[in-house]
Each structure stands twice: as C-alpha cells, then as structure tokens.
Design brief:
It is a single chain. By secondary structure, this protein is mostly helical. It has one domain. The protein is built from four helices and two strands. A two-stranded antiparallel sheet has the order 1-2. Strand 1 and strand 2 form a beta hairpin. Helix 1 packs antiparallel against helix 4. The chain is flat and about 60 Å long.
C-alpha cells in the first residue's frame, strides 16, 4: 500500500480513527483487539482499491485547504455549542460537570474523520470527466 497521494493518506486516517473510537467504546483487548485490527485493515485495502482520484497537484492542495476550513469551522461550532450548554448548567450557583472527558476525544476524532471525508468528496473525479491522453 503506497501512501504517496492524499487520497490514500486520508483513507488510512479515517479507518485508524474509526478503529480508535471502536476500541474505546467497546474496551477491546487481547484477541478481540487483534480481530478488530484485521477487520479495519481489510476495510483499508478495500477502499484503497476503488475509484479514480486526482494526483497530488495544486488543485489537490486547494481541496485540502477547503477541507481544513470546514473542519475548523466545525470545531468552532461544536465548542461554542458545548460552551453554551455547559454555561447554562449552573445549578443554584454551582457549576456542574456536564461533558465527560472522553467526549472531547470523540469530538476530536469526529473532526479528523470529517476533514478526511470532506477532502475525499472534494477530490473525487466526476464519472463524466474524460481523461486527456
């Protein structure tokens, strides 16, 4: 598997992040952990073998910047919403802890997945596009 283009790198990032979330949620260890790694490795191989995507060029770099902008906007929106919800949970003048610490890890992983999926959507080659030979 070559990681020479952005598409392959983002697919690996998505699958590794989903595996991290999966292992955190189900608290896998031992044989179950090894099986989950094998399943996600097969998914990586499946996704890397399908579709045509642009080569690494100036347009690809623009698409990466667009994906970064969308991901950063999502981070800001989520943090503002969490601040509003957390700020309104004062009970009798005492702050209550509303968000679990693991929630921040899941949000960060979700943002990484959002960035990579957005890039893959922006970088795909339309079916009706004819290659110049």
């Amino acid at each position: 598997m070559k990681l020479t283009n952005y598409r392959n790198k983002h697919i690996v990032i998505i699958v590794m992040t989903i595996q991290f979330i999966f292992n955190q949620i189900f608290d896998l260890d031992g044989l179950a952990y090894v099986i989950s790694i094998l399943i996600f490795s097969v998914l990586v191989g499946f996704f890397l073998g399908t579709g045509k995507f642009e080569k690494q060029d100036e347009l690809t770099k623009v698409n990466v910047m667009k994906a970064n902008t969308i991901a950063l906007s999502a981070v800001l929106i989520v943090l503002v919403i969490m601040g509003i919800i957390g700020g309104n949970l004062n009970h009798n003048g005492h702050s209550t802890k509303f968000f679990a610490e693991d929630m921040y890890w899941y949000i960060a992983a979700g943002i990484v997945i959002l960035r990579s999926i957005t890039f893959l959507i922006l970088d795909r080659t339309p079916k009706n596009c004819v290659e110049d030979e």
